[in-house]
Amino acid sequence: MHKCEQLYEGKAKKVFLTENPDVLIVSYKDDATAFNGLKKGMIVGKGAINNRMTNLLFQKIEEAGVPTHYIQELNDRETAVSRVEIVPLEVIVRNVAAGSFSKKLGIEEGTELAEPTIEFSYKNDELGDPLINSYFAKALNLATSNEIETIKKYAFMVNDILKVEFLKAGLRLIDFKIEFGRFHGKIILADEVSPDTCRLWDVESGDKMDKDRFRRDLGNVEEAYIEVARRLGLEIEKE
Ligand code: TMP
Ligand code: ASP
After folding, report:
1. Residue 12 sits in which domain range?
2. 203 belongs to a structural domain
3. Mean pLDDT of the chain, nearest integer
4. Are residues 31 and 119 in the same domain?
């Protein structure tokens, strides 16, 4: 498998075509952005950590019955994945109040929710990924009713799997964002699961171990990413 022409460059990844029309290669960057690209920076070593961590977790998710785009890790930063058509929804699952949920609803960060929640944002950078509901998604032809039902079912399954995996690593899964794609008509999990896309708090100290350290200028950003990866059993060299 080898990289052909670059198809796309996003904020955190580059995507390349391969000789197989059903397969892409994603290449994870160290670039970090927040607030829809307003804040820009670099988290050294992040690309390799997010790539390897996503692949580890996608394999566990797949074993538990949710199909994913993962095919094969090629090296520290690059992975072969199934070529999907991304459903333009950011799917956010929350277990504990934090971030925009706390701000919008006036609920203190760290408040445990009575049950997990799900929300959708329309994936559109120009509009700042506005919050929408599933009726909007259907009305705008972003996804069908069946696809939305599948996405909801899979998102809560992913939550159950990730909560257990992170808890084994001494981390509380506060919330996360995932994306899905269509592969030959079927919904599968795509994109990534990493400290860029999850809130992870240390079980003992409550310390934030995720991208909020970058968003909120808390310091020790690289160290937190490395620590999360190590706790999940990945061997990471500091770059
Ligand atoms: P929020 O509280 O800012 O809405 O974020 C909820 C979760 O989604 C949090 O784990 C961070 C993640 N997230 C992304 O992965 N990408 C984004 O663009 C945003 C806004 C949040
Ligand atoms: N997706 C956001 C950005 O574009 C990053 C974030 O806050 O996670 O900058």
Report:
1. 6-82
2. yes
3. 97
4. no
